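Hi all, long-time lurker, first post. I run a small reading group and we've been trying to get comfortable going from sequence to structure in the token notation. Rather than ask abstract questions, I figured I'd post a concrete chain and ask someone more experienced to write out its structure so we can walk through it together at our next meeting. Sequence below, copied exactly:
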Amino acid sequence: MAGESTWYRELVLCILTANSSFFSAFYALQNLGELIFTGTEDQISEALKRSGYRFPNLKAKYIVRSRSYYGRLKNEIGKVAEKDQFEARERIMEIDGIGMKEASHFLRNVGYLDLAIIDRHVLKFFSVFFSEMKMSSKRDYLEIEAIIKAIAASFGTKPGILDVYLWYLKTGKIAK
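-- Answer (accepted) --
Happy to help. Here is the structure in token form:
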């Protein structure tokens, strides 16, 4: 199983993915390298700018603040997730720059598959079946997630697996 540094890299990827494309965030993370662990806010911001990344100053601030979770993610969040992935998601959402979608994304990337990652690709896919799908609140997210969970269960799979498949259908690419 992955170690704490991998879990932290996944957290930073999710911070970078919020309000940005996955591929832009992944490219930026690769360019940041070890700066996520040791760089100053200014160094991280400059590296993000060189990567062509959106919101470099804000995301640099979030990355530096998130370091207080490094060393505790796998032990604390992992233990909670083993018992209750919904509670683990709530705890991850306490981190600056992480909302419901990215907290679910983080958990999926570290191996917990019971939550749905609801993004524009998923909403667009389901808009064919449900004309009034909008997501403007936590309640909306949970309602849509319940639908996705039911659909996943009908296929004998988990929401995290269905999400990857829907992403592939809409983008033609496999990504984490």
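A couple of things your group might point at:
The mean pLDDT is 91.
Residues 120-171 form one domain.
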